Amino acid sequence: MSASYILVLYYSRHGATAEMARQIARGIEMAGLEARLRTVPAVSSECEAVAPSIPQDGALYATLDDLKHCAGVALGSPTRFGNMAAPLKYFLDGTSSLWLTGELVGKPAAVFTSTASLHGGQESTLLSMLLPLLHHGMLVLGLPYSENALLETRGGGTPYGASHHAGADGKRALDMHETALCRALGQRLAQTAQRLEAARG
């Protein structure tokens, strides 16, 4: 039985990355596939700290089964010194069992990020998130310049994936170009997953 959903897996501290995830999910659904939104718990400096098994609000926490059975993945994180946030890295570090069995090989994947400053490491963060996906044998998708918003944006937007400039207070809303690029990335991911499934017969 083929997978019928794209996993939109993200970590968000102040809500900007979560909003990007929702717009990517909308693009996935516009292309005819289910979008499954999942997040990861924060990493704590307290040795005994335990997050509740269900978050107080927002998306549920991701499981390895969410990743194993998806048709593709959109991976999102805020920028942390030009890299993905520790909670997302921690989750990915725990996916060795999927790597050993090749569960993600050949599935399409894309990445997205949000930063406080316009040049706050968007591209290096996106590239850092691609590394574990490449190790899993996934097929990496970016945004082509046939997307007009990529040429017109004055905020976020890169060929490596969707991005957003949230501002110093983290409250700048996604503008129309950033929203368009999030949706375009979701559509591209879903359409690619559908083509790959059709090719498998």
UniProtKB/TrEMBL annotation:
State any single GO MF term.
FMN binding
Q: Which cofactor does it need?
A: FMN
A single GO cellular-component term from the record reads: membrane
Q: Which InterPro entries match?
A: Flavodoxin/NO_synth (IPR008254), Flavodoxin_CS (IPR001226), Flavoprotein-like_sf (IPR029039), Flavoprotein_WrbA-like (IPR010089), FMN_Rdtase-like_dom (IPR005025)
Flavoprotein as a keyword? yes
Does Transmembrane show up as a keyword for this record? no
Instruction: State the UniProt keywords alphabetically.
Output: Flavoprotein, FMN
Annotated Flavodoxin-like domain residues: 6-189
One Pfam family per UniProt: FMN_red
Family to which this protein belongs: Belongs to the WrbA family.
Question: What is the protein name given in its UniProt record?
Answer: NAD(P)H-quinone oxidoreductase
Q: What is the lineage of its organism?
A: Bacteria, Pseudomonadati, Pseudomonadota, Gammaproteobacteria, Pseudomonadales
